[in-house]
Write a structure and sequence with these properties.
2 copies of one chain form a homodimer. Chain A is of the alpha/beta class. A 6-stranded parallel sheet of chain A has the order 2-1-3-4-5-12, with helices on both faces. The first copy, chain A, has 14 helices and 13 strands. The structure holds a DNA duplex (30 and 30 nucleotides).
DNA sequence: TCGTGGTATCGAATCGATTCGACGATACGT
DNA sequence: ACGTATCGTCGAATCGATTCGATACCACGA
């Protein structure tokens, strides 16, 4: 038999060099064979593959290939909260679904960056090889994780997050969408309207929002959805929830609806369908008829399968498209391109939860 | 200034060698400084860190470190279905939450391996550097992805999946749990009992299960949950759903309950809380009183926040613990250990959906 | 027969860090 | 003052593949 001209692994699993030697070719050729390059003869490729099979070699080590290629095939999705909470949000799930759809078709994997403290640990970001990161459900402004990633040279895509230089933004027209629903309510004669907001900051605060609190809001989309209401009604009372969850919607609903009828709002604009669902539940508890006594509108167009036959009036956003756009932008960044920001349209969907003011 | 004794990167981002040169130390020392080794003086570490800051070097490249260390810091979670469906399952989410809790504390990331075809693509598995993989919500027997992973030498943990040699199994006592709930129903006088099963295979089949279909079941837990009922009642009719979703529970409920009263079961044992929730909805539609006319039991102990005040009788499994156990086992495998299989206990939780037979 | 063009394969450099054993210097004990 | 620990730093090998430019080979035409 031929002597070994290439360094072989001392022990353990075979490497490409082992396979090459066994097939009687150079490592370079073996590599070409595995990558399916047309520069290698079918016969040679066959020999290499046979040798690999004989040695139990399952293909080039992804880590080594990553180093050489300069990319790992992993893209991170930053979901600020711990998984359990983040994934109670049907919008988050659908967004990630859209992302994986695109990434999967490129053979790239999606890695979840979560943190019970609200941020993924810097340690994690430092240790894990990421080709790019997508800020999915946590577009907090002034995010330290975003800074860390950029310092490492990891390209970043932000979904409905802060406007940062050099970061691709995938956005929807929150403000116009909410304004449309507000316009609808106004046309229906509503004048006592309040809005139930998603958290302005992740500090567990819950309750009416004053000017100073509002000025310190961390999330651009939350601000825009407030402004949309104000575009039609001018200043309205804002009730902030501690998280985007049904239970929070219930709490908010009870707080706002369990008051004397003359002070009770005739319509509530929730910043998400999940919150709206909670409000509906609170209204039912209090014996209020929707939409007879109260109109309720949401945002997202999520399919809340547990809502039963109620069709929520809402602003439908193309969540899955948003996810695909984010992933596509991320892939472009990895390829060295400079994808443009994306602004996606939203549209009003009128359901059975809004009617003329009582 | 000193001449460069170490090879520096020709252009682009600085490397550890660049930093080392600037700090006037060797690359080895710089590496030690970054890893926080006690073998390096505080003063030296300071010099290195200062040099790094000056150069805009954010720390060692994770890919290169991965190659040298032989691990990537990424663990894959195989969720068979596409994300959108997999994450409608509250149990899956809670399981993943438990997993990330442990992984996060080790600075390791969780990568989702999904596939709308039902399996993650082999291509993906080949390209992405994985230290280990956890089969989370798809313990299908004879899974090609499992084979691929093992061929690549990726350690595998299976949650409630097939029994495979050399693969760590995290299991719960499905059969005993279901038997307990069946015993309860039996003691309550129920004799016409049927069971609503999760998919036996992922082929979209829905309806009564005959012997041949049952023999071709792909999932061990599904089989065990059937056997648990049979342990008490002997052979019972089995209705298979096409997926573990509320809508499927509704469909099953309608099929089984919309029949003449004398043929209608007095109790239904669902293989999951999600399916049970659907059954409850179907029963309500048909005007059946639960638990007056019909007793319903589930499995999982998931918190279905949309169920309202109904407390489902169910078999509670420690889902989050299961996730933590899986992640812990995965970490052990990465470290070269041979973690033992784990069998977790379950317990019956009696709610308001079961009562004496009518 | 020799030159030329095209092609399949090969060599060697390279990606960027980690780690182990070696080495020099300092401190200490006698 | 000299031998010996101790401690901090350094050299060099190594992880395993990819890729570009070079080379060897073959066929073909003049």
């Amino acid at each position: 038999m031929g002597h070994n001209r290439y360094r072989l692994t001392v022990s353990g699993r075979p490497t490409l060099a082992t396979v090459a030697t066994r097939a009687g070719v150079s490592p370079s050729t073996a590599s070409l064979a595995f990558s399916g390059s047309p520069r290698v003869t079918a016969a040679t490729r066959e020999r290499v593959l046979t040798a690999a099979a004989a040695l139990g070699y399952a293909g080039p080590d992804p880590i080594a290939a990553s180093l050489r290629r300069g990319r790992s095939g992993v893209i991170g999705a930053v979901v600020g909260e711990r998984l359990l909470y983040a994934f109670r949000d049907p919008v988050a799930i659908q967004l990630l679904d859209g992302i994986t759809e695109v990434l999967g078709s490129h053979g790239v994997g999606l890695l979840l960056l979560a943190g019970d403290t609200g941020r993924p640990s810097t340690e994690q970001i430092a240790r894990i090889p990421l080709d790019a990161a997508i800020f999915a459900t946590c577009g907090q402004e002034d995010d330290p994780a975003l800074e860390t990633l950029r310092a490492r040279g990891v390209p970043v895509v932000v979904v409905e997050g802060p406007v940062v230089d050099g970061v691709t933004l995938i956005d929807i027209d929150d403000r116009r969408g909410v304004a449309e629903v507000a316009r609808l309510l106004h046309d229906l004669g509503h004048r006592r309207v309040e809005t139930v907001a998603m958290p302005l900051r992740l500090d567990g605060t819950r309750g009416p929002v004053d000017a100073s609190r509002r000025a310190r809001a961390h999330y651009r989309d939350v601000r825009h959805r407030i402004e949309g209401v104000e575009d039609v009604f001018g200043p309205v009372p804002i009730f902030e929830t501690a998280s985007n969850a049904v239970a929070e919607g219930i709490t908010a609903g009870r707080a706002l609806l369990d008051v004397p009828a003359h002070r009770r709002p005739t319509a509530l604009v929730a910043q998400s369908d999940v919150l709206a669902a909670g409000i509906l539940q609170a209204a039912a508890e209090l014996g209020l008829d929707v939409p007879g006594d109260l109109s309720v509108a949401g945002f997202d167009g999520a399919d809340l399968h547990w809502l039963g036959h109620v069709r929520l009036t809402t602003v439908v956003q193309p969540t899955e498209v948003k996810g695909r756009a984010a992933a596509t932008a991320a892939m472009a960044l990895v390829a060295g391109d400079h994808p443009p920001d994306v602004m996606l349209p939203v549209h009003l969907r009128i359901g059975t939860t809004t009617a003329v003011a009582p």
